[in-house]
Amino acid sequence: MLHLRIISPAGSTPDVLAALRADPGVTHLSLLPGAALAPEGDLIHADVAREAANTVLAELERLGLARSGAITLEPIETVLSAAAERADEAAPGEPTDAVVWEELLARTHEESTLSASFLAFLTIACLLAAVGVATDSSVTIVGAMVVGPEFGPLAAFAVGVVRRDRALVWRSALALLAGFPVAMAITLAATLCWEQFGWITLTGFETAQNVDFIYQVGPFSLVVAVLAGAAGMLALCTAKSAALVGVFISVTTVPAAGFAVVASTIGEWHAALMSIGQLALNLAGIVVAGVVVLYLGPQEGDARWRLSRLLHRGR
Hints:
The protein is α+β, with helices and mostly antiparallel strands and about 325 residues long. The protein has helices spanning about 15-20, 55-60, 65-70, 80-90, 100-110, 115-135, 140-145, 150-165, 165-195, 200-205, 220-240, 240-250, 255-265, 270-295, 305-315; strands spanning about 1-10, 25-35, 40-50, 70-75. Strand 2 (about 25-35) and strand 3 (about 40-50) form a beta hairpin.
């Protein structure tokens, strides 16, 4: 379930309480009149079944609380309550299938912004990838995969496409289109410096065997990207952080960028272009898979939503 905390202007409180009482997925309703100070108003607490959250939030926003008050939503780890069980049974669908759009937007918003921290993580990941290529170390390549923050804007891009949110799509695209060139440019400067010290040589690059999978584009490159994108979006929707880590390790986006930089500095243009192709293929596959997963999820009111509700109540 999710915990809902609302600051409501005194004049709107009766309508808010009526809307909450009318939804069978809402329980544990409490009111503290005049308890809120900034903004001023009444403080309302309630717990809502995950499946009913979109409907409840839409009604609260229709009442103007996002402008005149406040709406806070947070997950509840453990609930021991017969009332909560009844609310969960009454709510349509399955909790694990429900996509709470406001929650998903909040998760992807921060990660989709071109910020100093995003650039720092992406640059560090590209540098690690370059070191992995230079030392023929698959372990370092895996480390670069984990550090890379690129799945955030990719997921946000997919959410923006499904929600027809142009601002989110543009912000996510900007983070990727500006972030990768900046990170690769810094990695290029570092690689040229390492070559001056003799740490990276053409001979060492040609004899590397553990990292050549990065630029070898094949049918399974797209398969892995699509599967990783689908798993990542499902992990975001269900807050499964462990699955997200698996997604980071499975795709070669950042390693491909680092490999392209190293290959270009020593004149291996074919390998560099193949790495760029690998990068583009993975980015596209992840976004497409994320969009498909969101579209295939049960939407409120459609046949899949009603079937899920019937199966849930049948059990």
